[in-house]
Design a protein that fits this description.
The complex is a heterodimer. Helix content of chain A is 38%, strand content 0%. By secondary structure, chain A is mainly alpha-helical. Chain A has one domain. Chain A starts with 8 loop residues before the first helix and ends in a 13-residue tail after the last helix. Chain B is mostly helical. Chain B has one domain. Chain B is built from ten helices and two strands. Chain B has a two-stranded antiparallel sheet. Chain B is globular. The N and C termini of chain B lie far apart (51 Å). Classes of the chains: A mainly alpha, B mainly alpha. Chain A: Keywords: Acetylation, ATP synthesis, CF(0), Hydrogen ion transport, Ion transport, Membrane, Mitochondrion, Transmembrane, Transmembrane helix, Transport.
Chain lengths: 66, 226
Amino acid sequence: MPQLDTSTWLTMILSMFLTLFIIFQLKISKHNFYYNPELTSTKMLKQNTPWETKWTKIYLPLSLPL
Amino acid sequence: MNENLFASFITPMILGLPLVTLIVLFPSLLFPTSNRLVNNRFVTLQQWMLQLVSKQMMSIHNPKGQTWTLMLMSLILFIGSTNLLGLLPHSFTPTTQLSMNLGMAIPLWAGAVITGFRNKTKTSLAHFLPQGTPTPLIPMLVIIETISLFIQPMALAVRLTANITAGHLLIHLIGGATLALMSISATTALITFIILILLTILEFAVAMIQAYVFTLLVSLYLHDNT
């Protein structure tokens, strides 16, 4: 049976290693799997105005102990 | 007759140069890479099919097992395309070579088993003794389980080789028989019909890859990681 002739085994195995482990994996690693487009919420995000990020007493003048 | 029959399984060499490397590399030409956002139909179809197959096969595994996705997907593509291309007349099928199948089976099986041993030693050793065996049977059962473990890569390789080789041989034989029977045309129609059915069944060479990757995957991986 010609498959049992071990003289060609090294060539076969090396060419298989090249194809399978290198070429095919390089090709498949370049596939992009995209996410399906999803709806983003249209609600406007509330931006913090600079004077609201830090609270200080002067913002509530009526509460000052004067 | 014997020489003639096995002639198509001799590794093709031209003047000592390995033509077989080009033959093994050829299926990779049929899977073009494309870095575009929107590809052409051919590439899109291939990527979609690969995504389908990977979801089907890799969803059973935990995240550690899913790191093998690239390897197993390229395995199934390689074996599938090689087997299908081998169905063309006068082509050489690399997967009929025992050398190549052994070269695929042994490293992959060994990788899975060694991963299991390194990360979950007790669990993987525990697989040698099924639950609830009566005490006197334990030594014999451990021996049997060890043998069945070590036979796995051999079985994988020989299964693929034997199936593809046998299919190709049958096609050769029956085709030759049809040709010889042409002059006695009564039985020709029946034999041609049998060839057709046999070729269709052989299209399930694709099922062979499914069998290969699936067997490899399910038995080895679930075994070693879960």
